[in-house]
Write a structure and sequence with these properties.
Radius of gyration: 17 Å
Distance between the termini: 27 Å
Strand content: 35-45%
CATH architecture: Alpha-Beta Complex
Structural class: mainly beta
Largest sheet: 5 strands, mixed, barrel
Strand order of the largest sheet: 3-4-9-8-6
Number of helices: 3
Length: 215
């Protein structure tokens, strides 16, 4: 599913999201193991905060961070039962990941071509995620996250991506009016937010990766 996305630029946090501007630096594109800003509510707080987090969830029980190579996406159908995610889900560690767009492979020509998925109006959007906190053997802490995905075999936009025969998946978009509700969802309430991406609001276009020596 999604292994690469464009985090919201620092300049729009106060204007488009009405959130504080991040106090840390992060890359213009996020890949697995990269850092990006997410919004969450810590267990000892009732107030949402921005936090620097690694893409690829590292469960609290993990011995190292290598597991993040396999935990960057969590299926909504099994997030409550898979060992890597179930504790974070049970503890309602929900997060929002602000994005300008994300990438998926299109196989229309027989070979994968990178396509960019974004809003029709190119506004920033927020994606549902779960997070966890891991402490390394040296005592340092790490917040990490996994993007939630949903089946999209019949989706007008997302149904074209991934290899032929593979299940089609989509990120879960949390619209502006539901962001705080998602972060504060209780038990079964969270499931009501896990709906398909609104097709009329999103579009996709080819956006091949350009090698560094050709930029």
């Amino acid at each position: 599913m999604c292994i690469n996305f464009i985090p919201a630029p620092r300049s729009v946090f106060t204007t488009d999201l009405n959130w504080p501007e991040p106090t840390f630096e992060y890359p213009k594109e996020t890949y697995v193991s990269y850092r990006a800003p997410i919004r969450l509510i810590a267990p000892d707080s009732d107030v949402a905060e921005l936090r620097e987090a690694m893409f690829g969830l590292v469960p609290f029980w993990s011995k190292d961070t290598k597991i993040s190579r396999h935990t960057y996406n969590a299926r909504t159908e099994t997030v409550g039962s898979k060992p890597s995610y179930r504790v974070a889900w049970k503890k309602r560690r929900y997060a929002l990941v602000p994005m300008a767009g994300f990438y998926e492979p299109d196989y229309e020509t027989g070979k994968p071509t990178r396509w960019r998925i974004e809003r029709q109006d190119q506004d920033i959007f927020t994606v549902a995620a779960i997070w966890d906190y891991w402490r390394s053997p040296d005592g340092s802490g790490l917040t990490s996250f996994s993007l939630l995905t949903i089946n999209s075999d019949d989706h007008p936009v997302m149904g074209r991506f991934h290899a032929p025969g593979d299940e089609k998946r989509s990120l879960v978009i949390i619209p502006p009016g539901h962001r705080e509700g998602w972060l504060n969802a209780k038990d079964k309430e969270a499931e009501s937010f896990l709906t398909p991406m609104p097709a009329a609001e999103f579009t996709a276009r080819p956006d091949p990766r350009v090698p560094p020596n050709r930029r």
